[in-house]
Specification:
five-stranded antiparallel β-sheet, three-stranded antiparallel β-sheet, 12% strand, alpha+beta
């Protein structure tokens, strides 16, 4: 007796594969109704598709017979093509790699281009470029956040391309500019090199119309020194908006606007002494990258090791030190939900360069001991995290109050993430040493220190300093005890 199967309830999935293996009658039903079952299927992996084909030759024949429709619903189509298509059919089936994508996954067309070259299906790069141009609309639409990688490959293949080919690519970019602008960014960093678009005059004209905001969702990965040239070419200007968007605004317009406001404020505070051309990159650390803006340092990066820290005279007093929620996120740093922004006074960061290791140790150990005496532990001890004050250790950021007098701004705890205020007699003078990088500063906890329970910072050097500190305290106590005995 023939079993009844409801074809509308069957899709290409693991359960269907299991039934095919266990039930010959179901296998025959599956093959006879393959097109309907394929139509029911929303998405399958190339791995699952290969398992279907390896189980029975008849199924593989059905897959290859309907390969274009199969690939539309297969995640990892380049893998399916390489594993299932006979080598002598590569060339005649190559167009199938560019069919519409009906899955929820992005098509890695950059990998498809590399596969075509590796398998030598098309050996002349101008012929491969023509194939890509023929299918460029699907490529732009379906590559999603992989499109920067695809453009990198297209740029490579475009060396020596004809004017006609360049024009066709240019027109496709313009035709699909809204799609390009609305691509979702994934965790991986995928940015554009503006050099890829040097010859795309129509595309650049469209960017000019949109303005610098175009680069919010079309982030560049050029050298900072190239940004001015790019903005001058496109917008005839290079200002705080361009700077903030191109360097910090990747997929996050709010972040770009916040940083633009801060930069404008710092430049205005300089009384015309600095402009956007005077902003200097001064290095990147594990958590942030820094820029010198006149007498101030702007740091932007990840969430800190500890977002809230106890205040201390040995910590460089910030104007701003706080976290902000990302819109979509600057994946160049990471995929975390927040970023951190800090504005500090300029200090001498190179104080240690001409000192001996012993002299450097003495400075670092003095800082550690001072803070440890006040119940605070510095967990990231290194000379690069310390600066020598050029001004007294206070905000040094003034404003004119309602009484017409110039006064220092006093940032709130919310603005700095630092608990507690310093009294006037705690403010260290110029020439003293302070901690610049406040990622790993915590209140002393005996259990944490004795068992080395902290999970962030540089464990060994902190432990060594703690041992030296306790030894020093013991020596001081013994000395005081003997002096007291002598007095008695």
């Amino acid at each position: 007796m023939t079993k009844k199967y409801n074809v509308n309830e069957i899709t290409l999935d693991d359960e269907t594969l299991r039934r095919i293996i266990l039930d010959d009658e179901f296998k025959e039903f599956f093959i006879n109704n393959f097109n309907k079952i394929l139509n029911n299927t929303h998405c399958m992996t190339s791995t699952l598709l290969k398992e279907y084909c390896y189980v029975y030759q008849e199924i593989k024949e059905m897959v290859l017979k309907n390969f274009s429709e199969v690939l539309k619903k297969t995640e990892g189509r380049e893998i399916a093509f390489r594993e299932l298509v006979p080598e002598d059919e590569y060339k005649k089936r190559i167009q199938e790699l560019f069919v519409e994508n009906l899955t929820t996954f992005e098509v890695e067309y950059d990998q498809i281009i590399l596969l075509i070259e590796k398998l030598k299906i098309i050996e002349k790069k101008e012929d491969l470029l023509d194939l890509l141009i023929k299918n460029i609309d699907n490529i732009i639409i379906d590559s999603g956040s992989y499109f920067p990688y695809v453009m990198n490959q297209i740029d490579r293949l475009s060396t020596g391309a004809s004017d006609k080919q360049i024009k066709q690519i240019d027109e496709a970019l313009v035709r699909n500019i809204d799609i390009i602008q609305n691509k979702e960014q994934s965790i991986d960093e995928k940015y554009y090199d503006f050099k890829w678009f040097d010859k795309m005059e129509k595309f650049k004209e469209e960017i000019k119309k949109i303005g610098p905001k175009f680069f919010i969702n079309f982030p560049l990965d050029n050298e900072i020194t190239e940004y001015k040239e790019i903005c001058q070419e496109l917008f005839n200007r290079y200002d705080s908006e361009c700077f903030s968007i191109l360097i910090f605004g990747k997929y996050d317009e709010t972040k770009a606007n916040i940083i633009k406001t801060i930069i404008n404020e710092l430049m205005e505070h300089s009384n015309g002494k600095i402009n956007i051309d005077n902003i200097e990159p001064i290095g990147s650390g594990n958590f942030s990258k820094s820029f010198k803006i006149g007498d101030y340092i702007l740091k932007v990066g990840k969430e800190r090791g500890y977002n809230e820290i106890p205040n201390d005279p040995r910590i460089l007093q910030p104007i701003i030190r706080r976290k902000f929620k990302k819109e979509k996120g600057d994946m160049k740093f990471d995929d975390e939900e927040y970023y951190f922004l800090e504005v500090q006074n300029l200090v001498d960061k190179d104080w240690w360069e001409n000192l001996s290791r012993k002299q450097i140790y003495d400075v670092l150990f003095k800082i550690y001991c001072d803070m440890r005496d006040r119940g605070i532990v510095w967990l990231d001890i290194r000379e690069k995290n310390v600066g020598r004050l050029l001004k007294p250790n206070k905000v040094n950021y003034t404003y004119i109050d309602v009484d017409k007098e110039e006064k220092d701004i006093r940032p709130t705890k919310e603005a700095t993430g630092m608990t507690g205020e310093l009294s006037k007699n705690q403010i260290l003078p110029a020439g003293e040493y302070v901690i610049l990088d406040t990622d790993f500063i915590v209140k002393y906890d005996e259990e944490m220190m004795s068992k080395r329970k902290w999970h962030r910072g540089r464990t060994q050097i902190t432990y060594d300093f703690e041992v030296d500190y306790l030894r020093l305290k013991e020596e001081q106590n013994n000395k005081e005890h003997k002096e007291n005995e002598y007095i008695i």
